[in-house]
Write a structure and sequence with these properties.
The chain is α+β, with helices and mostly antiparallel strands and about 400 residues long. The protein contains twelve helices and ten strands. The strands form three sheets. A four-stranded mixed sheet has the order 1-4-5-8.
Length: about 400
């Protein structure tokens, strides 16, 4: 890769151990995961076998579960350290699953807020890749940006357990998950901030079912689920009852920043494909690389990559330091989503018809870029929330809230 951004604009140079891990992860993704994408995308038994083989190889290579806690048999990298190689890992949608970092959000959430039983029963198995989890927050016919309107309800029973009923959708990986974290109303009424809780639901419980798959532009992986009076043990409540928004806020900040890092990796991949095409493709008027319009695409894409990367790593630094990163995460999420769509669009344009077909990863990368502007909160949500926060600070006489 010619513009990998290893040093990361505005960030400290990572230590040699992290640089070496990044190079090895990058090599593994390019030589083992990306060539397997066609099989992995198709799903079914062949995909399961291919992923199992890749996981065994990543374990043998010392690349398994690098950002997960060492006391749970993970690699023990801090979030700041892992961010230095998350781009490389995320260049393929299958990278996190193949290298064992996919459950990072769930492991972090359950480690912080799960009961002793939940931590003992599930965490090591999650890190080992023996079980899978997913997260169910949004619902059909309910604005995904307003969790206060959650209609799924959980009623406490005489024995202390919960009975959960409702529907969720755009739940990633629900079809193969063993556990799903469900946001449900345990008190109050629609619109109340209090009374929203998170419950960890075993998907094998009676009353749980996958209703349908929800392809995104033809791509699989998202599902609608139903919970019909599903019984959940009392100790599968995360945190204290009613604090779902606080826990979800932690998860979303980390999750959005992780996505941004992975979108940078995918955009870098599209940029490399574009430059390779321009440098090697010639027509009757000479090499594509000599065409000014092609040079414009390359320049604009490089500018987008280089200006987005520091925003993402500023959010990483604040989260790693335990500071309020809401503004920085909002800026990074909008910038990274736009950047991925822009860079892949330019790469497709330079490829011409070949960029629309199955011979490159560009159609799937572009699809991811378009979906990125809606998933994890649409652009409009982040734009308005960041702007309101900034203007509120000015209105209170706090002056500029910009950093750097």
């Amino acid at each position: 890769m010619t513009d990998s951004g290893t040093a990361h604009d505005g960030a400290a140079q990572p230590d040699p151990r992290i640089v070496e891990l990044r190079e090895r992860a990058d090599r593994f993704i390019r030589t083992r995961v990306i060539p397997s994408e066609t099989v992995l995308d198709a799903g079914g038994e062949d995909a399961t076998a291919a992923l199992t083989e890749l996981r065994a190889e990543s374990r043998a290579a010392g690349l398994w579960a690098l950002p997960l806690p060492a006391d749970l048999s993970g690699g023990g990298l801090s979030f700041r350290e892992y961010a230095a190689l998350a781009e490389a890992e995320g260049a393929s949608d299958h990278g996190p699953a193949a290298l064992g970092s996919a459950p990072l959000l769930d492991v972090t959430m359950l480690n912080r807020h799960g009961s002793a039983r939940v931590r003992e029963e599930y965490l090591k198995r999650l890190v080992a890749g023996e079980i899978r989890t997913c997260y169910a927050m949004t619902e059909p016919d309910v604005p995904g940006t307003d969790p206060l309107l959650t209609e799924t309800r959980a009623e406490v029973q005489a024995d202390g357990s919960w009975c959960v009923s409702g529907r969720k959708w755009f739940t990633s990986g629900a079809a193969g998950a063993d556990l799903v974290t469900v946001m449900a109303r345990t008190g109050g009424s629609a619109g109340d901030r209090d009374g929203l809780s998170l419950l960890l639901v075993p998907t094998g419980s009676p009353g749980f079912r996958v209703v349908r798959e929800l392809p995104i532009f033809g791509a699989a992986g998202q599902y609608e689920i139903e919970l019909d009076q599903v019984r959940v043990p009392a100790d599968h409540l995360l945190g204290s009852g009613g604090d779902a928004l606080a826990i979800a806020g932690e998860r979303l900040a980390l999750g959005r920043t992780l996505r941004c890092l992975r979108w940078l990796g995918q955009a870098q991949r599209a940029f490399d494909l574009m430059c390779e095409r321009a440098a090697t493709r010639s027509g009757s008027r000479g090499p594509l690389a000599d065409h000014q319009l092609v040079q414009q695409h390359v320049f604009d894409a490089l500018l987008a990559l280089r200006t987005t990367r520091p925003l993402v790593h500023e959010a990483v630094a604040l989260i790693a330091a335990g500071q309020d990163a809401r503004t920085e995460v909002g800026l990074a999420k909008v910038a990274a989503a736009r950047m991925l769509q822009q860079v892949t669009d330019s790469a497709i344009q330079v490829h011409g018809a070949a960029g629309l077909g199955p011979d490159t990863a560009l159609p799937s990368l572009f699809r991811g870029g378009r979906a990125a502007r809606i998933l994890d909160g649409p652009d409009e949500l982040h734009i308005t929330s960041v702007a309101r926060r900034v203007l509120r600070d000015y209105g209170q006489g706090h002056g500029s809230t910009t950093r750097g």
